[in-house]
Amino acid sequence: MKIKVFQVNSFAKTVQGGNAAGVVLDADGLKERDMKKIAKIIGYSETAFVSKSEGADFKVRFFTPQEEVDLCGHATIATFHTMAEQGRILPDKYTQETKAGVLQVEVKKDHTIMMNQNIPQFFEIVSKEEIADSLNISLNDMIEELPTQIVSTGLRDIIVPISNLETLSAIKPDFQKIAAVSQKYNAIGLHLFTLETLGESHAHTRNFAPLYGISEESATGTSNGALASYLFEYGEISREEATRLIIEQGYSMNKPSEIIIELETRKQSITGVKVGGRAISFAEVDVEI
């Protein structure tokens, strides 16, 4: 049986940029083992499988080359971009059933796609020494005033504050140690950021998730939703700035990416998180299973 897989760069700043995802429409007839096989063959950090849902407009499952994950931001963007491009949906608001819950996705007329994430949860603060060791850096390379903390808007990420762009760009991590730390804290991986940027953005980031087969990812929706929440929580961005944040990622991989975050706030509380951007389709392949 041949299965068509759409290949899409989500959050692309340029044609070469973004984060590639696979998208399979009409996946109702596929078994879990089929989805795992397709995701492994395609080899992207995530492949999304769309099927009918009883509790939402669509059901979407996400698979890395190794295993299923509850949610994936860039694969969600790729999924709704593909459905719009294929004439399955029009600009509007939709719901998707995921293992992280039923979440809203908005397809805008300018082709930007924004997805709702969960209200942030702030978990334990992780030892900076432990994280620095896994990244082959010193404590002086981290922002002293900000914690290394697990934050989730759907997936648990360890947010790591790095002092400047030069240090962040030069990091050569120990992936075995990152995988061990991620497993220890039940986290997807490490999401590093600095407030020093190349353009008019609010933060520059790198993301490492070797536990899930992703050495480095060029654009990470869920992690940047968590990062934006963290920056607001610790007073690094104002309520006005929080309404539209731009995050840079992927430059260390020559895949320039731009992630848009919109936080809804009431006083000092976050009441809503949206993550989004644009996508570019670049290929279709048929996979034999």
Automatic annotation (TrEMBL):
<protein>
    <submittedName>
        <fullName>PhzF family phenazine biosynthesis isomerase</fullName>
    </submittedName>
</protein>
<dbReference type="Pfam" id="PF02567">
    <property type="entry name" value="PhzC-PhzF"/>
</dbReference>
<dbReference type="GO" id="GO:0016853">
    <property type="term" value="F:isomerase activity"/>
</dbReference>
<dbReference type="InterPro" id="IPR003719">
    <property type="entry name" value="Phenazine_PhzF-like"/>
</dbReference>
<keyword id="KW-0413">Isomerase</keyword>
<dbReference type="GO" id="GO:0005737">
    <property type="term" value="C:cytoplasm"/>
</dbReference>
<feature type="active site">
    <location>
        <position position="46"/>
    </location>
</feature>
<comment type="similarity">
    <text>Belongs to the PhzF family.</text>
</comment>
